[in-house]
Amino acid sequence: MRGISPPGLLFALTGAAALAAPFLTLAANRIVAGDGMRLWDLGLWLPFAGLCLGLLAGLSQRWPWVRLLGGAVGLSCLIWALSQGAVSALDGAGQYARVSPAAGFWCLFAIYALLMADALTQLRPGAVLRLGLLTLAVGVLAGILWSGALADLSISQEYMSRQRPFATAFIRHVQLAFGSLAVAALIGFPLGLWCHRREALRRAMLPVLSFLQTIPSLAMFGIMIPLLAWVAASVPGAREIGIAGIGFAPAFIALILYSLLPVVGNTVAGLDAVPPATAQAARGMGLSPLQRLWQVEIPLGLPVLLTGLRIVMVQNIGLAVIAGLIGGGGFGSFVFQGLNQTATDLILLGALPTVALALVAAIAMDCLVDLSQPQQRSQ
Predict the structure, then answer these.
(1) pTM of the model
(2) Are 114 and 228 in a shared domain?
């Protein structure tokens, strides 16, 4: 047992159970519940062998590269099985039949992804290498989707019938998440700097921002509706620039309010983390307050500042889904349409891009935080 990885053993045992679970679901149409189909029901013995090989490779404790390769082999065989299984399941199933990934697929996908993440943690690659691996993973995923290998899946059918609305939802989701982040940064960084300089303002401001953070997202969006409806009706020109009780404006403002606490709080924490001796040395060299800020305080506090932006980015990507309830657009519109129609794959059409966008943003920001460390910048 000395050469066996404990996480790898856990992944192997749970993976063996997932291999016995239904891999695909075949339904008569997009709404009704379907019947589960296992890998051996579909005759996918070669992908099955590859999945088992990936789990066995994950047992190695001494060779993390082998574990990483095992996870990659497992994910490749998983996509292969999904593509071939969809074709096999739909053969003779009827014009309106739909096939979707079942619990076995999602469990195996999580297991192989966690196996690769655990192997990368053991390897400890640098930030540049992690960015390269992330770019490679995004490129491979885009290539698989572009190739049409998964075109027979129900979620692909949902996408094909909604290509233009999907592009519109993507643009709106990015506008909500990243636009609110940009505005919050423009407001929060100067406010955080001011709170860092004025202790009384810090004691007054941070509790208020903390209170805003505790308001549930649905309640916050609900509060925005009557307020902005009144502004649209009372302020000349407000409606012409897009201010309304429902739609983009209330969702955007609510996301800005949610973003202020992490930005302001991490700005204060980053500036407070500058060693007093360093600040005294900069002052003794005759640097002005503005020079000390840009040449000393911000470079030393940059990792903490970027961590605040990372928190806001991932938070806003997720919260932007709720904007679909008030007509704000984004991927949330597909999620709530799917809930209304009891169409699981339509829900996934909104949920999966949101998860992927949040994951890519989080990994990219983690790499930037590492690159901003003083010891990394000096290399």
Answers:
(1) 0.87
(2) no
285-315 pLDDT tens trace? 777 778 888 888 888 888 889 998 999 999 9
Same domain for 170 and 277?
yes
**Whether residues 347 and 274 fall in one domain:** yes
Look-up: residue for tokens 């490749």?
A: 76
Give Cα separations from 281 to 159, 228, 275, 286 (angstroms): 59, 50, 10, 9
Burial (Cβ within 10 Å: 0-12, 13-18, ≥19) of residue 195: buried
Task: List helix spans (H) across the chain.
Answer: 6-19, 45-57, 64-90, 103-123, 127-147, 154-160, 163-174, 180-197, 199-214, 217-234, 248-272, 276-284, 289-292, 298-319, 332-341, 344-371, 374-377
Number of domains in the chain: 2
Do 289 and 129 meet the contact criterion of CB atoms below 8 Å apart?
A: no
Q: Which of 78, 66, 157 is nearest to 110 (CA)?
A: 78
Residues 202 and 262 in one domain: yes
Helix, strand, or coil (residue 245): coil
